[in-house]
Amino acid sequence: MGLLAFESNQGLWNSGYYSQLFGIGGVMVTVAILWLSTGYFGGIGAPFSPYFWPYLGQLPKKKERKRPVRVYMDGCFDLMHYGHANALRQAKLLGDQLVVGVVSDEEIVANKGPPVLSMEERLTLVSGLKWVDEVIPNAPYEITEEFMNTLFNKYNIDYIIHGDDPCLLPDGTDAYALAKKVGRYKQIKRTEGVSSTDIVGRILLTFKQKEAGSMETTTDANQNTGATCDKVKSQLSNFLPTSRRIMQFSNGQAPSPGARVVYIDGAFDLFHAGHVEILRSARQLGDFLLVGVHDDQAIRDRRGYRPIMHLHERTLSVLACRYVDEVIIGAPWEVSRDMITTFNISLVVHGTVTEGSSVVGIDPYAVPKSMGIFQTITSTKPITTVSVATRIIDNHEAYKKRNLKKKASEDRYYTQKKFVSGD
Asked: Within its chain, how far is the Cα of 221 from the centroid?
C-alpha cells in the first residue's frame, strides 16, 4: 500500500495517504526518502532507490549556458543616417550580439567613389549606435571566402546580415553570394526614404555657396526659378515618419527619482562624429541625457538656411545614439524656467563648436545661466554640418558622378521593389 501511495500523482503528503506511513510499507518508503535526501540510511535504502529514479528526472535542472548568437553586418556608413541605424537595429534583433564591419576607404573608392567621411569619423558614428556591440575597421566590400572564414572562426559569427536591396560588385555579381551559398545569410528590410546618395543629392542641389556661416539655400522663394524649385522638391525626403518607428528607436524609460538630468539642444543636422562626441561628454555629467532637437523653421529663421535632414529624420538619428535617453522633438530655442521645472533639469550644457546664428542679442541660455545650472563643454571634434557639406561641394564633380552611378541602381531597386515583411 505504501508503494502505491508513493506512485500516486497526488503525492505522499496528501491526507488520504499519510496514514499509510504507519504501516510496514510506509516505514520502508519513509526510510527510502530519508536515504535519498540525507544519505543517513545509505546502506539500508539502496534496494528501494530504483523506484525513485523516474521521479528524480522531474526535479528542476540547471539550464545549460548557451553561447550568444553573434551576427555580422557591414557597410560604408558614409553620411550616417537613420536608415543605417534602423538596419543595424534590425540586425541586432536576429541575434544576441551585433558585430559591424566598416568598409575601408580604399574599398569604397574602388566600388562606389570617394567617401565623404574618414574612417575615424565613420568608426565613431557606428560605435556610438546603441545596438552595436563590436566594430571591425577596414572590412572588405565583398564577403570573400577568406574573410567569411575569418568571421566564422575568429569572430564566432553565426549569420551575415544585409538588406533586401541588392549589393552588387563592379562586375555585377552579388557581394554576399558565398554567405548565401553556405546558408549563413539572413536578410532585413531596407529603410525607405533615405540613402547616402539621396543626402548627397540634397546637398548638391540645396547649397550654392559654401562659406562657413554664410551658406545660402536655393530654396528661398525670392531666389529660385521654377525649374530649380522642381529640382529641389525632387530631392526632399520621402521618409514617412510613424510613431512605431520612434518607439523602436526610443529607450522608453523615464529618469529615476533623484536622477541628475542633463539637457543639451541643437539642430543635429547631418548627424556626424562631432555630435556623437559632444553627446558622450554631456551624458558623463549626469544620469539621464535629454536632448532638444530644434524644428526646421527655427533653424531657418536663426541660421539663414534650412536643415538638410528634416525634424523627424534628425530626431531618429539622435535617438539612435547610445548616450541619449530621451528627445524633445521640436524643442524651443530658448530654455525657459518652466521647461527646466517640467523636465527636472539639473544642468544645461552647450558645446564650444556650433553653427553660426543670424540672430544677434538673444541668449537662449539666459535663464539656466541665471540659475547657475549652465555649463559649456569642450567639443573634441571641430566638425559641423557646414564643414561636412563643404567637403561634398569642394568635390562637386566627383560626387555628382558617384551619385549618377548609384542613383541608377537605386532606381532599379524601387522599380522592382516588393513588400518584405518585418522592419
From this structure: 37
User: What would the grid cell of residue 211 be?
Assistant: 562659406
Element (H, E) at 377: strand 374-377
Question: What string of pLDDT tens digits covers the 423 residues of the chain?
Answer: 443 333 333 333 344 444 443 455 554 545 454 454 544 444 444 444 444 444 445 555 555 668 999 999 999 999 899 999 999 999 999 999 999 999 999 999 888 888 999 999 999 999 999 999 999 999 998 889 999 999 999 999 999 999 887 677 767 778 888 999 999 999 998 887 788 888 888 888 776 544 434 444 333 333 333 344 344 434 456 677 789 999 999 999 999 999 999 999 999 999 999 999 999 999 999 999 999 999 999 998 887 778 999 999 999 999 999 999 999 999 999 999 999 999 999 999 999 998 765 556 789 999 999 999 999 999 999 999 989 998 888 887 776 665 565 555 555 555 655 655 566
**Contact at 8 Å (CB) between 252 and 325?**
no
Closest to 118 measured CA to CA, from 325, 334, 387 = 387
Q: Which helix (H) or strand (E) holds 177?
A: helix 177-181
| Beta-bridge partners for 264 | 291
Is the overall model pTM greater than 0.70, yes or no? Answer: yes
* In the chain, domain spans: 70-188, 249-385
Within 183-280, strands assigned E span 185-188, 261-266
Please give the CATH topology (third level) of the domain spanning 70-188. Rossmann fold (3.40.50)
The secondary structure element, H or E, covering residue 98 is strand 97-103
- 103 neighbors 140 (Cβ within 8 angstroms): yes
Beta bridge partners of 263: 290, 348
The answer to whether 184 and 356 have CB atoms below 8 angstroms apart is: no
What's the rounded Cα separation, in Å, for the pair 374 and 376?
7
Distances (CA, A) of 202 to 116, 225, 235, 265: 14, 17, 5, 24
Domain with residues 249-385, CATH architecture: 3-Layer(aba) Sandwich (3.40)
